[in-house]
Design goal:
mainly alpha; 401 residues; Growth Hormone, Chain: A
């Protein structure tokens, strides 16, 4: 039997590859724009069809259901080959369309992998330690961008070659993880229950009835609205800092790296020790309010280096115990084994596709006025916080079943 922490690390590597591919695009975006000479419309197209948005959503919709029908192991054993195929197009792109084409395949693979990996982590974790094991996946989600950004900082003088090398490291790592995952075992919960059930497309309809429709709607709203802010920051922050602010490419990458360092530390030091102990509402509320306050700085003041640093400091310190971490934990607790990955895939799909639509229009909004975008993000975060707090009040720690 595979040790739970080995399962968590190998399954959670999906989070590293997901976030790493998003932020690699964020680092490369100013370089691609300069090299290929495309405008804001094409910038929005890359953001919309990247692993940050629509393609990941489509992959999650199919991948989550397949995880419940065929098993978690079958899905995550092969999806990373699709991820690697997509990266090859990005690495060797000589035309702008090749970037979008490669990101579509990379995003599909990410979308398939995330429901499988998060579900497996929840089902393999020992009783009473689901928050701790889920938190490790979030640490990996923050580590991927950090490594990418540090590479971007080190390679900032090499131009487009540096961006290709960053994506190349994800390619090598994805193939290594694919090889190591081949020895992981299936989820014991799924193995016990799946032979006695007939899993069909009716699973989606089942999610729209009691008692599942309420957590489905509330968790999707909470995470989806928050993700419009997180996706904007994760993919566009270096672009915003260099085009709206006065930061250099190296400074923008360094600030983004610091953001992920703080986020990783807050997962390790705050979320993982406390998530399984109850009293989750104050933890969630602190993170939600702090994120709103951070974006408020961007709405009220010019985007100077001092304002950018303050935003990064506030966002990072609370970034490890907010909506994303609780979404992973609550979604695993809210649904039974044979619906868990389907529900997670459906929610993840809605969230990422919505972000794709937002990404299509965001560059145009940025040209029209950055402060208006910041106020819009505050509205998203505020509604997300209200929904999350309402959900936290109605649930307590539950066993994974």
């Amino acid at each position: 039997m595979t040790h739970p922490w080995r399962t968590t690390l190998l399954a959670g590597s999906a989070s590293y590859l997901d976030a790493g591919s998003i932020v690699a695009g964020a680092v490369a975006l100013p370089l691609w724009t300069e090299h290929f000479g495309f405008g804001t419309t094409f910038v929005g197209l890359i953001g919309a069809f990247s692993s940050n948005a629509i393609s990941a959503g489509v992959g999650a919709l199919a991948g989550g259901w397949l995880c419940d029908k065929l098993g978690r192991r079958r899905v995550y054993q092969w999806d990373l080959l699709l991820y690697a195929f997509g990266l090859l197009w990005i690495i060797f792109a000589t035309e702008p369309w090749m970037l979008v084409f490669g990101y579509v395949f990379t995003g599909l693979a990410v979308g398939v992998d995330v429901p499988a990996s998060w579900t497996l982590i929840a089902e393999a974790a020992p009783k009473g330690k689901h928050g701790r094991h889920g938190g490790m996946a979030q640490v990996l989600w923050l580590t991927g961008p950090l490594v990418v950004l540090l590479m971007g900082l080190a390679l900032s003088g090499t131009g487009l070659l540096g961006a290709r090398l960053i994506f190349a490291h994800l390619l090598v790592l994805s193939l290594l993880i694919w090889f190591l995952r081949r020895r992981l075992v299936e989820s014991p919960l799924w193995e016990r229950q799946a032979p006695h059930a007939r899993i069909t497309l009716a699973s989606f309809k089942q999610l729209t009835s009691k008692p599942y429709v309420t957590p489905l709607v509330m968790l999707t709203a909470m995470y989806g609205l928050w993700n419009l802010h997180a996706g904007t920051s994760g993919f566009y922050l270096p672009y915003i800092l260099t085009t709206v602010g006065a930061q250099t490419q190296a400074a923008s990458v360094a600030l983004n790296a610091f953001l992920f360092v703080l986020g990783g530390l807050s997962v390790l030091l705050v979320f993982m020790p406390r998530a399984d102990r109850g009293r989750r509402t104050p933890l969630f509320a602190t993170a939600a309010v702090s994120q709103i306050a951070a974006v408020l700085l961007l709405a009220l003041f010019p985007l100077t280096t001092a304002v950018a640093f303050a935003y990064v400091l506030m966002s990072g310190l609370c970034g490890g115990f907010g909506q994303q971490q609780f979404f992973q934990l609550w979604s695993a607790e809210a649904f039974p084994t044979l619906l868990r990955a389907t529900a997670l895939g459906l929610m993840f799909a809605i969230v990422r596709i919505a972000l794709g639509g937002w990404s299509l229009v965001l560059p145009t909004f940025l040209e029209a006025g950055f402060h208006s975008v910041a106020w819009t993000l505050i509205a998203f975060l505020s509604v997300s916080a209200v929904v999350g707090l309402a959900y936290a009040r109605r649930v307590s720690s539950r066993n994974i079943r």
